[in-house]
Each structure stands twice: as structure tokens, then as C-alpha cells.
């Protein structure tokens, strides 16, 4: 099963991906500087979800989500395939995980509080309004603050719901 982790940083360059395959023409390499990992390269594929279809440029604050269990080449700087990218000029924290019907993520470290639903924008991955309870799906969550409880509780600013037939996103093959 996939496990997702965020990286926060600043874009240092955006270039075409230089590989020998024809499919690389549709791929980019975003280099970023992260406080936690230093220089990191992100492979952006046609399957990468980009919040609000933002076009990244040098100097943009960025948050990237990658699959920690996906194969990674042993090179420097580390190179991860981006699952989700978002501009992060507001300083949001992010999570991408499967949230159950009680809105608790799989490793039970984060619980979403939607008691004041008017403050939370809930959208489908295509940008349209999601009209139902978001539990039981993979969710991309943007939030500012959490409680210090276990699990931490947050009232998110935005939730992006990734719908699939079995509640799990398709893996890139």
C-alpha cells in the first residue's frame, strides 16, 4: 500500500525531463530547495495532480506529495515522482491519505473536524464542488493549525476528494 509524504520548499528551476523515451516530452523536472532535505528533484508526469493547475516558476513556494514506497533512483539530488503539487505561499500544512468515515487518516495521526463546514472548501479533483461526506476516500487536505491531541484535530481550509471505484487512487504503472 502506498504511503505519502509532503516536502515543503522553494522552486529553483523548471526544465523538461531529459530521458530517451518519447513519453518524456510530456514530463518536467522541478528542482526545489527544501529545509528538511536540501536540493530535491521532482518528476512531474501527466498523472501528477497540480492544485489549481498552477504553472510553477523559479522562486515559487511549493509543496510536493510523493509516494514513499515508490522506487527512487540512488542519485543526488534525490529524485521523487510527484503525486501532488501545490503552490504554498500561505504556509499551509498538507496531508494526502485515506480518511475513513470518521475522517481519521490511516495511521490515526490526523482527524478532520468539519463541524464548521462553512469554513472548509470541499472539491473534487476536477475542481467541482463535492456535495457529500468526504470520508471513505483519499483526501488532499490543506490546513493551518492542529490540536496537540492524538490524533491531532484540524479544521481544514480546503479538501480535495479523489474518487475511485474502490476509494483508492490508481497507482502509476
Describe the structure.
Helix content is 0%, strand content 43%. It is an all-beta fold and 173 residues long. The chain is globular. The mean pLDDT is 90. A hairpin with a 3-residue loop joins β2 (28-34) and β3. It has two domains: 4-87, OB fold (Dihydrolipoamide Acetyltransferase, E2P) (Beta Barrel), CATH 2.40.50; 93-162, no CATH class.
Write the layout of secondary structure elements.
Blueprint: E1 4-16, E2 28-34, E3 38-44, E4 49-50, E5 61-67, E6 79-87, E7 93-99, E8 110-112, E9 121-124, E10 137-143, E11 152-154, E12 158-162
CATH homologous superfamily label of the largest domain: Nucleic acid-binding proteins
Q: Between the first and last Cα atoms, what is the distance in angstroms? A: 14 Å
**Overall form:** globular
Mean pLDDT: 90
The major beta sheet can be summarized as:
5 strands, mixed, barrel
Q: Would you give the CATH topology of the largest domain?
A: OB fold (Dihydrolipoamide Acetyltransferase, E2P)
Q: Which CATH architecture of the largest domain is right? A: Beta Barrel
Q: How many strands?
A: 12
The run of helices and strands is: EEEEEEEEEEEE
| Helical/strand content category | mainly beta
Count of domain modules: 2
Tell me the name of the CATH class of the largest domain. Answer: Mainly Beta
* Helix fraction bin: under 10%
Strand order, largest beta sheet: 1-2-3-6-5
Please state the CA-atom Rg, rounded to the nearest Å: 16 Å
> How many DSSP helices?
0
Content of β-strand: 35-45%
**Unreliable parts:** none
Amino acid at each position: 500500500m502506498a504511503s505519502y509524504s509532503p516536502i515543503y520548499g522553494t522552486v529553483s528551476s523548471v526544465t523538461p525531463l531529459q530521458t530517451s523515451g518519447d513519453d518524456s516530452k510530456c514530463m518536467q523536472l522541478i528542482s526545489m530547495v527544501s529545509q528538511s532535505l536540501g536540493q530535491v528533484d521532482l518528476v512531474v508526469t501527466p498523472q501528477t495532480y497540480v492544485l489549481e493547475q498552477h504553472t510553477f516558476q523559479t522562486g515559487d513556494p511549493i509543496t510536493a506529495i510523493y509516494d514513499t514506497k515508490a522506487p527512487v533512483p540512488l542519485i543526488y539530488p534525490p529524485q521523487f515522482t510527484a503525486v501532488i503539487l501545490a503552490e504554498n505561499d500561505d504556509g499551509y500544512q498538507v496531508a494526502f491519505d485515506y480518511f475513513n468515515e470518521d475522517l481519521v487518516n490511516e495511521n490515526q495521526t490526523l482527524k478532520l473536524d468539519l463541524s464548521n463546514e462553512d469554513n472548509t472548501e470541499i472539491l473534487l479533483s476536477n475542481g467541482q464542488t463535492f456535495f457529500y461526506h468526504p470520508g471513505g476516500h483519499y483526501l488532499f487536505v490543506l490546513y493551518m493549525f492542529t490540536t496537540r491531541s492524538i490524533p491531532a484535530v484540524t479544521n481544514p481550509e480546503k479538501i480535495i476528494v479523489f474518487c475511485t471505484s474502490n476509494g483508492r487512487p490508481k497507482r502509476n504503472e
